[in-house]
Amino acid sequence: GKVRAPTHIISTISDDRGEEPCYAGVPMSTIVEQGLGVGDVISLLWFKRSLPRYCTQFIEICIMLCADHGPCVSGAHNTIVTARAGKDLVSSLVSGLLTIGPRFGGAIDDAARYFKDAYDRNLTPYEFVESMKKKGIRVPGIGHRIKRGDNRDKRVELLQKFARTHFPSVKYMEYAVQVETYTLSKANNLVLNVDGAIGSLFLDLLSGSGMFTKQEIDEIIEIGYLNGLFVLARSIGLIGHTFDQKRLKQPLYRHPWEDVLYTK
Ligand code: ACO
Ligand code: LMR
């Protein structure tokens, strides 16, 4: 019979051995000929399946809306400083990417985890928020440095509008909105932010599309796929900021003394 040599790597998402590479079994030519987009490619390579159009469109909207948020945010600032230190594209990009985490852009997975847990356990927004407070954990997906109850994040509104029109159910998002109503009653900066909107809406996408089993949803949430959306999206902007600084021939950045409180 056949003797199977042991392998050092197992891979299940792509295969380049044939005439043309395949993503989750779908040949490149099919992707091009059917006019598929980056949302479809993400579906194949991350979720290992083709998703309905409204899902891939939602993924693409997340990517477009999170691509950049100006030069002042943590990621862009790091990238700009690095580019101005004369570093190459990859160094400037990763310097910005390394700021993505629990406070900045990387709260999507935790938002999904906590909103799902609270919703599935039938916690009222009051019980959820106050239990987080007792544990000393800030609610992921809530709060923003500049957005306020009277100056909402347009990105959140756009995502919500799309989902309300196209998703079969937006129960997790509605729960996140109820949480926001409660947190806004405590402080005006405690809005549902773009991480919280994507986290809650992705729960709706996963559970409402009928494309994933409960076990698969739990695995996606546990592994933490969703911060990948922000990482991927923001790379577009960070690459843009690198080119911008190089084009402008900006000199080495040095922070002004006046802006530092020197104290003992
Ligand atoms: N949940 C509960 N209370 C909060 C939260 C929250 N998510 N955010 C702020 N607060 C309250 C706390 O009482 C906080 O006091 P503390 O420092 O004693 O905990 C108080 O508001 C003031 O907080 P600040 O630190 O002044 O708020 P800041 O504007 O600096 O923080 C931030 C903004 C980092 C986004 C914060 O709200 C937070 O950590 N949110 C959770 C993580 C998150 O969702 N990050 C993604 C943001 S969107 C993006 O990056 C694309
Ligand atoms: C972003 O998308 O970078 C922002 O929401 C963060 C910020 O501070 O504006």
TrEMBL record:
The chain holds residues 345 to 608 of 608 of the full protein. Belongs to the succinate/malate CoA ligase alpha subunit family. It is found in: Cytoplasm, Cytosol. Heterooctamer of 4 alpha and 4 beta chains. Signal peptide: none annotated. It comes from the Eukaryota. Coiled coil: none annotated. This is ATP citrate synthase.
